[in-house]
Input
Amino acid sequence: MTDPASHRRTAAVIPAAGRGVRLGPGAPKALRALGGTPMLIHAVRAMAASRAVSLVVVVAPPDGAPQVKILLDEHALPERTDYLVVPGGETRQESVRLGVDALPEDITDVLVHDAARPLVPVETVDAVIEAVRDGAPAVVPALPVADTVKQVEPRGKGEPEPVVATPERALLRAVQTPQGFDRETLERAHRTVTAVGEGATDCAGMVERLGAPVVVVPGHEEAFKVTRPLDLVLAEAVLARRRANDGF
Output
């Protein structure tokens, strides 16, 4: 009997066209150094670490594709994986769509990964791919929420905000990436759903609006997003520990 998974090919799309203003002035967030290497390179290596990923598409700033291509050429990347750089759009949604549009026809499954999550372990990447190949149209890695969460009525900056609800923490998950999709489902979401609010940065949220099922697999503490200077300090510590323990 033929294994259906043998006919499936997975590509990862990494939108890296944003500037990441919360990290402060300087280079775009994806190009900030982590352990002496740009975060984008760490993110590409994290996707390529999975033997199931045959192609990584990096979506560069609209005017920065040649520079990003040079950057990838300058760093050692797994030879079994192909790489492609395409110019992005004005929004993350548009950049992801442009990345998906650039995929070869034989790609069946797509990962969408934040360049600002440079340290996601390969076990998490593989778990997402496995769930997609097992039939889930959309898969997100996520962690239980550690803090109590309050829903509020938004007010102006610095003003006290009335609490309107306290969601049950056991029912909440903090979503990470890579998010994984059946290619047809992801393409349909980008054709038919206009992402606004939280959905503008979450492809799985767009799939939810289609009415298609989205499932959660366990995420990992080291797949956190590097958004603020303190996150960069933590990422440096994680990377230093990996290098000391594993020769990473």
About this structure: The CA atoms of residues 15 and 96 lie 6 Å apart. The mean pLDDT is 90. The chain has seven helices and twelve strands. The helical segments are 39-48, 65-74, 92-101, 122-133, 183-192, 203-210, 229-246.
